[in-house]
Specification:
alpha/beta, 5-stranded parallel sheet, 4-stranded parallel sheet, 9 strands, globular
């Protein structure tokens, strides 16, 4: 059985993720109390279901604390993937304001920001259990695509190495395990011809590869990752997210993300994201 557990902050996109999985043929259950997971999985296995997705979050109350132990138990006999969705506080506040929905931890005596803070604290340990996705700047269609790409389970037993570019002016991604700042490199933005292009375009690639600093930087980053990747593999990590940031997330970080992804394609399962291009 392929079992996908979805959790995260209220307003971070869990419903969108669950809908994407349902469209992909998963049997989906929303807002299940954590202690009922083994019973549900057992029953669905008996009835022949092979692809199951379950959303478990703070709506379960104190029972959410049992999730780490249950994940350890459920890994025996299932191909389990855990995805935690997150977003910046200001993004969550805006989303709740737009939808006018009530936060599950809201009371008559505190603000929405305080409710989000209490939820973030309650889920702090759970957020470290699986793959972390920051949805702050993502459109629903982009998130659905990322979920489908992440859960292409044909090579599930291998480490998934995820390279993502971003723009510092939009903030550092919450889901990054490593962050490399490449703003010191020559910037194609100042060339009027290159400005509307991206780091995937041949003209921008040629411009960047003409500069010795760019070649040195990419090689230093490649060597650092190559040296330390075995340690993450021995640590039984399923996902490792490496973020590269430039000012706007359009040229330098995009180029280096694509280049590094190509370099490591034989080491692990590799995914590529361009946060600022998708925004």
């Amino acid at each position: 059985m392929q079992l996908v557990l979805i959790s995260g902050l209220s307003g971070s996109g869990k419903s969108i993720a669950l809908n994407a999985l349902e469209d992909a043929g998963y049997f989906c259950v929303d807002n299940l109390p954590a202690p009922l997971l083994p019973q549900l999985v057992g029953q669905l296995r008996e009835t022949g279901h092979t692809k199951v997705a379950v959303a478990v979050d703070v709506r379960s109350g104190a029972s959410i604390d049992a999730l780490p132990q249950l994940i350890g138990v459920l890994r025996n006999g299932t191909d389990l993937h855990f995805v935690f969705l997150d977003a910046r506080d200001e993004t969550l506040i805006q989303r709740f304001s737009e939808t006018r929905r009530r936060h599950p931890l809201a009371t008559d005596t505190d603000t929405l920001a305080e409710a989000i803070g209490r939820e973030r604290e309650a889920l702090a340990d759970i957020a470290q259990l699986g793959h972390h996705i920051d949805t702050s700047d993502l459109k629903p269609a982009t998130l659905r695509g990322w979920i489908r790409g992440l859960l292409d389970l044909g090579v599930a037993a291998r480490l998934t190495l995820l390279f993502e570019s971003f723009g510092f002016k939009h903030g550092i991604p919450l889901d990054a395990d490593m962050v490399f700042d490449v703003r010191c490199l020559p910037n194609p933005h100042y060339d009027p011809v290159l400005r509307p292009l991206t780091g995937r375009d041949p003209e921008v690639i040629a411009f960047l590869e003409e500069h010795e600093d760019v070649v040195r930087m990419r090689e230093d980053i490649r060597r650092f990752i190559a040296d330390w990747l075995p340690c993450f593999t021995r640590d039984a990590r399923s996902y490792l997210t490496i973020a590269l940031g430039c000012t706007g997330g359009q040229h330098r970080s995009v180029y280096l993300t694509e280049w590094l992804a190509a370099q490591f394609s034989g080491w692990a399962r590799v995914l590529v994201r361009h946060r600022s291009l998708a925004a």
